[in-house]
Amino acid sequence: MAKYLLLKHYRGAPAPVNDVPMDQWTPEEVSAHIQYMREFAARLESTGEYVEGRELSPEGTFVRYGGEGRPPVTDGPFAETKDLIAGWMVIDVESYERALELAAELSAAPGAGGKPIHEWLEVRPLLSVPPTITE
Amino acid sequence: MDESLLRTLTPTVISLLVRRGADFAAAEDAVQEALIEAVRAWPDDPPRDPKGWLVTVAWRKFLDAARADTSRRNREVLVESEPVPEPADLADDTLQLYFLCAHPSLTPASAVALTLRAVGGLTTRQIAQAYLVPEATMAQRISRAKRTVSSVRFNQPGDVATVLRVLYLVFNEGYSGDVDLAAEAIRLTRQLAATTEHEEVAGLLALMLLHHARRPARTGQDGRLVPLAEQDRCLWDTRLIAEGVDVLQAALARDRLGEFQAQAAIAALHADARTVEETDWVQIVEWYDELVRLTDNPVARLNRAVAVGEADGPRAGLAALAQLDPSLPRYTAATAYLHERDGDLATAARLYAEAARAATNLPERDHLTRQAARLNAALRG
Hints:
- The complex is a heterodimer of chains A (135) and B (381).
- Chain A is α+β, with helices and mostly antiparallel strands.
- Chain A is 24% helix and 26% strand.
- Chain A has one domain (2-59, 74-125): Alpha-Beta Plaits (2-Layer Sandwich), CATH 3.30.70.1060.
- In chain B, 71% of the residues lie in helices and 1% in strands.
- The mean pLDDT of chain B is 90.
- Chain A binds chain B through residues 21-27, 29-31, 34-35, 38, 55, 57-59, and chain B through 222-224, 349, 352-353, 356-360, 362, 366, 369-374, 376-377.
């Protein structure tokens, strides 16, 4: 088993196919989308492939040590293509192919018009400790 | 296996051990170990005298720990000094424990954790689960808290207001894992109300009961947030509401108003209305006026503005909002709501979307997104 991080972006990722902002959907479409995400996580729990998932607020700041006193805080080092992460899910799966399969499925969450959003998800393997036994 | 009985006995047993000469931290540790043993042993072999059992086992645990620390000779001295008369007034001791756990030298998070363990009798694992942190993290938080109060004298008088603040925090944490913190906060506040005559303790108890009574209606089956106006009032717990109102009336009759009584009065007016239209908004505004006078809390002012919007119309509500700091939590959502009531759907939709982006929890964000979506759909016709 290997763990993968599925990263969902607010922006910064390539535009999805069904690119309509959420507040322009109907309330039913919003509910259907949330329901899809919830059922996806619940199903992975039942297959033993779910590790954790969290949603992030779009508001964030960059902070660094700035000597004595208050640290400098900025809205971000990026001028225009500011990337924002909306949330993540960590899965623990048998293979890289399975991770891709699940990411694709998550990307098919319904959006405006009840059609899949086709949003891009970033898939990153989690680094782990070296195995005790190498076969 | 009566877990609530165990939890009720916890503060008493800790107090007894302290009376016998154990310091607070050691007594608390010993009682925790006794509780764990009780959970293991009681289902097969329930004791006739649960309190006596716990005192005996906890004292033995304390002695074991003391023996590990000191010489055999010291242990024998401790055993020698064991005979103890039953204390006359345990209620006072329990109250001291509340004050100790809410000591001002503790951070709010530590005070909450220590209260749940020492007064509530929850295990570290249960508290960790409720706060979604690893058990080791919570264990550290609790032992740090115990170290902080280790030099505080057990009989030092405490501040009721601080204790109430801690209980209020526990209530607001809601629930997760296998412990419902709201129910736990109510249990602790009931216990405190039984041992002290303070009218704000009654005010807080009434407030909790009235809010807890409406909880089944507050979320839909799919976990979505249901605003007060749309709640199915048949789901409200009328027994809890009646009790909350009784407790509140007894507190108000003593004519020493405080912020918890005022908040409970507002909650009671909501709980009293059989339909949303029956809500007595004029009286609610009057109570908010009292609350603002008592606390000068900006959140109370924000809530008051929304109530004014219901009592005197959305324009009046918006005028009241305009006096406040726009960076207040939920300011944008409240403004959106009043604009919608005023018929300005475009502004309301824009503000709902803005409020959704700033929301700090998921159900609220989803709710606000749906509100924006609903108005935008209406605007498209």
